[in-house]
Structures are given as C-alpha cells and as structure tokens.
Design goal:
single chain, mainly alpha, Amino acid/polyamine transporter I, two-stranded antiparallel ribbon, 76% helix
Amino acid sequence: MSNHNQSIRAQWSSNIGFILAAVGSTVGLGNIWKFPGKAYENGGAVFLIIYLVIIAVIGATVMLAEFTIGRHTKKETVGAYRQLRPQWASLGFLGVVACFIVLCYYFQVGGWVLYYIYSYIFKSAEVFTDPSFYFNYMLGFNEATGTAFFPWAGAIIFPLIFISLTVIIVIRGVEKGIEKFNTIGMPALFAILVILMIRAVTLPGAGEGLHYMLIPDFSRLTGETFLVALGQAFFSLSLGMAIMITYGSYLRKEENLAKNTALICGFGTLTAFLAGFMIIPAVYAAGVAPGKGSGFAFVSLATVFQHMSAGVFFGILFYVLLFFAAITSSMSLLESVVAAFTERMNIGRKKAAIGLAVIMFAISIFYTVSQVSVDIRGIWFDFANGLSFPTLGDFMELLTDRLLIPLYGLTACLLLAWVWGAKNGVDEIRQRGKFPFKLAEGWVFLVKFIAPAAIIIIIIFGLFLGRALT
C-alpha cells in the first residue's frame, strides 16, 4: 500500500465511538435470537455462569489478540498477516471470505426483519392469524396450496432496502458512517432492549422464567453446557471474522487496548443477558417453548406478542431492536471486506462497497429461495427429483460457523503468540496503556495454549463430530 494511502487511512474520532462500533458488531442477531435458546436448553442460570467465565478467559483473550494485531500493523486483515509474516498472508483471506459468505445470508435476514416491521405496522392481524403461514409465504411457499413461488418481497424488495442502508453507511466511512451511526444506534438498541425486558419480566407467569435464569441448579451442569457456552461465546463476540483486526487498525496508539477489550466484552455479554431475560420470561408467560433462529424470531414470538397487552406495539419494538442488531453487525462485516479490497487493490471505497454488495445481493437471493422445503417443487429447480438446492443456506452457515470462522480465529492466536511473538504483542498493548505484569503473563499463557485448544475443540465438535456449538 502506498504511503499516500497510509497517510489518509481512517481512524476512529473518539474512543467511545470505537467501543460503540465494536459492541455494535458483537450485538448481532445471534445474541438476540440464539443466546436465549441456548441458555434455556443448557440450564439457565448455570449456563450464564459458565458463559461469563468463558467470555473472560477465552473471548477476551482472542479479542485482545485481534485488536493488537490490527493496531500494530495499521492494516486490514490480509495486510496485517502479510506484515507480521508474509507466508501467512493467504490465511488472512479466511476472515474476509467468512465475512463475505456471512453477508450473503445476513443481508436477506436483515430484509426479513424490515419486512416484519412493515407487517406489524400494517398487517399485524394477518401475522397473528397464522404466524407459520405468514413466514413461509414471505419465503415463497403457500402452505394452503402447497406451491412455491418467487418471494419478491422477502428476497428482493426488503433485503435490497437493508443492503442499501448498510452500503450507504459504509461508503460514508469509518468516522462519518459507522461511528456516527453506532453513537445513535447502540444507545437506541439498549433502550429498546431494556424496555422489552421490563415488559417481559412483568408479564403474568414470567416469574418462573425469571427464577430459571437467576437461581442456578448445578445438577443441570454437564459437559454439553461447557461446549455450547464455548461456541456461543466465541461467535457472539464477532471473533474470527476479520472484523476486530480491521476495527483495531483504526485505533490510535494512545487507546488502552486491554481496557477497551474488557468494556466491549462486557457490553456485548450484557446485551446477550438482557436478551435472555427478555425472551425466556416472556415465553414462559405465553407457554411457548424457547427456540433459536428465524423460526423462533418470526413465528413463535408472534404467539407471545399476540397474547400480550399492546402486543403489536411491543412486536414493532422487538423487530426494530433486531434491525439495529442486524445493521450494526452487517456494516462491520461489509467494512472488513471493503477494507481488504480498497487497501489491497487500491479500489475506491464507494466502488468497492457497491460492487461487493451487488455480488452479495445476487448470491443472497438464493438463500431466501433455498428456505423452501426440499419436498416441494420450486419455481426454478425440480426439487422433487433430487436437486439439493434448498440446503444452500445450511451449507453457508456450516462453512462459516464450523470451519472458516474458528479456523481464522485459531490462526490469529497462533500468529500473535508463536509467529510474531507474544512478547511483541504485550509491548503493543502496553503502549500508553496499563497492562499489569501479572495480567500480561496470564494473557500470554491463554493466547498461547488455552484459546487455541478451545478453538480446536469448536472445530472438532462442530465439523468432524457434526455438532453445532453455536
């Protein structure tokens, strides 16, 4: 990269802006609609305790490593890897590829969220009449007739609006786009989340769910609890996706990396906990089984809102909450890919953002279409005669969640601890920021041995044993 490009490289205008942006990246859809279900299935309060420990020991360790690499090199992920060890440059692409693939379905889900904001405002009665029918119709399947059709609203119109908003923010740059949006969006997200949580815990019958989340029953503690908490903690912090290295590269040297990492992990975890205390008491009150993913967020929760006083209003608030969670994550994902293209290939930010978004959007359409059941005939493919196109969505998530993301996170730890050198990492962290000797010693041990071992466990159980930990 030329010296000219280096001299005009973006920076966060303030430390609080960086923290809000990084927290915004961690507060994705997974924290809102996956974490509560994981907590419910794995012991409630016991899961929360284990999760906290893993966040402190593993999550913060890997995040600090990624920030350190980014700030030291002042480059996006591929350039950072190349600078620290040229032979490792190709491994830096793992994070970029992961971000690209994730966006290919994240853009669609963000569009679904906008579709449901619209639906709750103008057609809530239709949603409540048959939530499953309404959701499947958005995806292009009419349950009444058993026929598939192209879902223009669910695959084109609303996802295109969501993508356009993300691209506009990224084009405006780090300071005027991403940072500025997050200084408004993150406080709004937390405010909405607190309002919804208060409403949930005051519902009749919510006390049982609240008790489940507050009073640990250690008889429910199993090896599965540790494994699931490990996977959820790693992915909920946006680790292993080139994001934190890219965001760290925009940091000034005077910022305290260790303190910032603690704050970001803390706020990200607080968001997940608030989501748990919002969802689980509410579903206990409504008698609905907590679930995970889109079916839960768009179908099961409709029953909760339907039986809640002012349910339409709180439903709208919930999907606005999901919108903020989705877009703050999508902009961080897109920024990581755009940064790699602009700095490696000298392509302008606007051209890179729009060009990449067009390609991602074209691919993303197939994600929504692929949600239609394998046993029906689609509009383009003869599903009944063996074509497995509907598994595309599952394959994309499997490729990123079980392979690319943890593998990239593993390379970041190994690069810092064993290739560049943990001592060099500690020296970078200590620049104008406090990092006590004992804490530094502990972090070096964790980043050298414990974090890599934990990530290898995620890969083994997720990929080779076929068990998803996220």
